[in-house]
Amino acid sequence: FLKISERKLILYYYIIMEIMKTFKKWVKRLIATIQNLLAPEDAKIQKLLDFPAGIMRDLLPKSPVYMKDVFVLFDYQNKIVRLIVKSIKYKNNANLRKRIAVYLYEEIIDMSSDIALFEGAPPLLVPMPMSKKEKRKRGFNQCEELVREIKKLGGDNIEVSYDTLKKIRETERQTKLSREERILNVMNSMEAESKIIKNKTIIVLDDVYTTGASLSEARRALLSAGAKRVIGIFIAH
What we know:
Elements: H1 2-38, H2 41-49, H3 53-59, E1 70-74, H4 79-89, H5 94-119, E2 124-127, H6 132-138, H7 142-154, E3 159-160, E4 165-167, H8 179-186, E5 190-192, E6 201-208, H9 213-224, E7 229-236
Parallel strand pairs: 1-7, 2-3, 2-6, 6-7
Antiparallel strand pairs: 4-5
């Protein structure tokens, strides 16, 4: 009798714990929904932009990624960082794009100085490409827009190209694909013009680094066309 009672008590305990977990998740979602209603995303972004550029950058969590030829500004696990990416990627928020372009420009200038010193020539900055269908559907390529902002900041100090790297076939959205599926999805989906990249270091700008599948495909296309080295720079990971 006692053994059966103990088992029941343990079972009830785990059932209650699961109910509590579900309840906590529901409460968190409810709070998030209420916060979004009281302070819409655009208002949150504006509050962020009210900070001076240097302070805003210090407030955002740095990316923990340290890999050869991959540079990432911020940690995508942070909800504000995700909101920033979303606002640039889907809403084409011009003020936020300009601010993030400043941070990317600072990193690119540091990289460019080292590359020019050790390799004898500055790098070429290119945006991660979209297919024509993707761009037509969204109306813009956020990576192109960021590169344009960086060019405005750098002038003659930054060499850019918008059509050196191209997407030549449609691919599925990477969001819900596994790492292996992402690699297969983008395989041989890009090509590069060889005219201005021979023996040059290329910096490819993209918004989010997840598995690295898109960067790997861009690197393959650029190296095949004669590039010397390919570096990826991202807003978040």
